Amino acid sequence: MKKLALGVDIGGTNSKFGLVDADGELHYSNSIKTNTASTPTRLVNAIYEEIKEKTDLIDQIGGIGIGAPNGNYFSGSIEFAPNLAWKGIVPLANLFEQRFDVKAVLTNDANAAAVGEQLYGNARDLTNFVTITLGTGLGSGVIADNTLIYGHNGMAGEYGHIRVVKDGRSCGCGRKGCLETYASATGVVRSIELLDTEFKAGSKIHTIENPRAEHVFELANQGDVFCSEIIDYTAEILGNALADFACFSNPEAYVLFGGIAQSGDDFATKVKGFMEEGILNIYRGKIEIRISSLHDRNAAVLGAASLIRKEINF
Rounded to an integer, what distance in angstroms lies between the CA atom of residue 287 and that of residue 50? Predict the structure, then answer.
């Protein structure tokens, strides 16, 4: 029997998982609403029961790779993730090992996405790049000289919590002005209210109950001026941040992943334009903005699965 890796992507909204073979092919995948699991143990059990009930592949799982917000590779724990209901330190890798009886490794979800993008996606030709995940929050996975950067205690690559606006929007991490409060799906929604100091009656976004980021992009494509202003503002914040981040690892490209990135080339072009305006001249014209090619296949699941394969070589 072919050994499979279970790749798990813990998100603020959805937790996706899939059984992946050595060629990167998914044999089964599904997702669970993260907030329906009141404890991490319940989420682990739900994934186990789902695989056992829907497939005959549970005995072929040779290891588990997990990507999670604030995931620490060295400890195997989620540590104080602001966008998850589970607070404090969550020993998630250990919980998966106990339930599945195989080895599990855990890393930051954006780190997992970066590995997946390099192995199977739009970064296969790159050895120096940064994956920017634009979801409920904003994550980043940094690969420099073909090496994933973990840092001193496993928490490198928290670009979403670099402060970009002094005394700006409050963030779940407890500080103000973090990048993810502006350039993420939730940041885009916050912009509807916070940028609208004068009610713009011509905007259809005000007629939608509980609007989401995709509504903003859809209406902008239909000519909604206010929604277009929100997108421009988001692209400007993100582009300027990426211009500054270039000084750290001198990447060949930034690879944008997530729903906002998949809105189309127009957003990526805007981000690129603002980045070029603000970037140090030694980097100007030398950094690409790419869109992930793994959105439908889930780079984080593939990346998480590949992490465990590297770890124990099966």
Answer: 42
